[in-house]
Amino acid sequence: MLKISSFLIAAALCAGGQVHAQAPAKPTATAQSVVAAYTVKAYQLYTDSLAGARKVQADLNAFVQNPTEATLANARTSWTEARKIYSQTEVYRYYGGPIDGAINGVEGPEPLINAWPLDEIYIDTIIARADLYPSLDAAALHELNEKDGEKNISTGWHAIEYMLWGQDLSATGPGARPASDFAAQNPLAARRAQYLQTLGAALVGDLEAVQVQWDSKRPGSYAQSFVKDQTALTKILTGLTKMSGAELSQERMFVALDTRSQEEEHSCFSDTTHLDIYYNYVGIKTVLTGGILDLIRAKDRSVAGEIEDNLQVTEDAINAMQVPFDQAILSDKGRAGVLAIISSLETLTESVRQGAVTIGVQLP
User: Fold this and answer.
1) CB of 165 within 8 A of CB of 270?
2) Which CATH superfamily is domain 34-220 in?
3) Over 80: is that where the pLDDT of 296 sits?
4) How many CB atoms lie within 10 A of CB 31?
5) Would you say the pTM of this structure is higher than 0.85?
6) Taking Cα atoms as reference points, which of 110, 111, 48, 103 lies closest to residue 226?
7) What angle do CA 127, 175, 256 make, to 5 degrees?
């Protein structure tokens, strides 16, 4: 292919013609094109996240059918990989969309999917007390989620995480639940197996409920109304700044840093909180570079440049973070690194808010 191209160029030059290698002009970003691209990306990420959850479900089922250390390791790996994708979707929250708003009178399933922190005793009690909790089907677990307390989590990513890893009692590694907890000789094995299988199926169902709403080809979907919503750009920037500011820097990082508590970190059983933080950031960056920055740059190049600089500072700080997170919040060096991420996220959030003003968007 290279020889043909070279021959054609030489022939054109010999004939007195000129060949200009010119890249196609990049289309000018508009609010409408940004909203459309955002909608497409949301659907793609939730589709990928759903595929990841289905892989988790399959590996959970394989594990309970044959509870060995190898099948347990496979299920843990699937969970960790699927979380990387889901964490990127969290920027599509905080404005009443399909994940945490009410669609057609039905509340979004976010608390059923990703609620935390989790009280391990609550799950252990549900499993152990068949007299109090005879049913372990999805409807029953959904009903029990956050019942009588926000830490009474019975479904979602972190319930699965706890079932796979158990409590993290190690200073150097994650939880170490043995596969034998699910073996036939264990008196609670059958209940644990049923609970874990239900968790996998429920997660798939709850994510599917969100994914279909972002399908712009589906009649009556949230995506179809979102691309016509005159406030869509405001919603996008609201979700982005709430995720980078109040949620990621404060709820997910500062609270744990301030209390020095492992219980306040996001994925405390698997020691993968650092991955949550990184892929939450990736989601934020994806939205910004998906057209938002182009809109801002067209109005004020310096503000756009500041946002880009702050993105890089944040990414560098995250990459330099001590791992695992539960140890980083204890040592002086680790705490300084976590504080650097928090500070950079706060600065990034303020620069994005300034960028919003530049393009005429007033955020709450």
Assistant:
1) yes
2) M75 peptidase, HXXE motif (1.20.1420.20)
3) yes
4) 17
5) yes
6) 103
7) 100
